[in-house]
Amino acid sequence: MPRVLLVMVLALHGQGCDVRLPDADDALAFSIRTLPEVVLDTTVDATERRFLTGMVPVALKTPDFDEGQRFRARVEAAAQLSDCFVSRPRMDWVEFGPDGDGELNEDLVAAVRLSRDSGATCLVIEIDPVADRRHVGILPPELTGLDFADERVRDPVKRMAVRIADEFKPTYLSIGVEMNGYFESNPNDFVNYVALHKETYDVVKAVSPETQFIAAFNLEALQGFFGDLDEFSNHEPQWFLIDMFEPKLDAVAFSTLPFGFFIRAVVMPDDYLSRIEIHTSRDVLFTEMGWPGDAGDPLHSPISQAEYLAQMMRLIDDMSQVRLVVWASGFDADPDTPLAETPEFKTLGLFDHRDVPKPSLDVWTSIHSLPHRP
After folding, report:
1. How high is the pLDDT of residue 57?
2. Where do the domains of the chain lie, and which CATH numbers do they carry?
3. Is 199 within 8 Å of 237 (Cβ atoms)?
């Protein structure tokens, strides 16, 4: 029996249907939920929020952005629509290697400064040291084949993290993105990565004591929902990975984009997010949350995107440990960019690529405008 019952067939039914979905403890057990037929509830009933909001302005800065004007406008818009500027820069092995100058990418520096000038009050930086969740890199030729056991790989990561911590004093910082994917294919080297995380924690705190150092996971993969994806993904839930980072851990971050498993957000179990709090007492961050909003896709339409966002807020409202909620992207991917080649991921924006707002923007605005009472 598969770990997740894909409910795509429900789109063909003319009436509401009973659906079985994973419960909190066993991916093979299911709880019964009823799928409403028509009503799409996009209301948010909360009167306050305990968490900061965040947004990635756009996936990529492209040459046709009018010499940066569109990118600048999107960074400014994201700062006005959220508390936190969020960036996931690739690990720069050359600049922070033994022959590099240790200088940060100019676009990153400019975007951080612009976001702060535009009103962003917090900063989230997740350095990405793996190429495809499976391999360290992309490494320069002299480091090809090395992993986190080698100091020639470890030292550049620490140097880049310290430089970011020292220059930006970010609110949240990690040296990984969805790193449970790396554990799936490289469990032995993952132990070396955890050791690197703990070493980096200490050196980051030395230059920026207030920065919260985090470990980042993909929620769906952590629960074993990608069993049919490849040879590494067929596994039981791996909540134990969180404990491996203790005690050098200030918060636990999750990405969650569950549209591959649920035809409608309303069929998500009530504990789909809150089950996290069973497995950690640390602050919980949702550093990437998203659902497609494609006007040409009846299953992932703009209104279903708004429904998902409202449903996630209802689930989060029952959680006491959540401190940050980040929407995946403020704007859809522009044509002729790599992300535009991926149908589901190119329409995650609250605006389309022409900067036209979607219904989900109203939902997001209603959330962000709530009084923040941590």
Report:
1. 84
2. 8-368 (3.20.20.80)
3. no
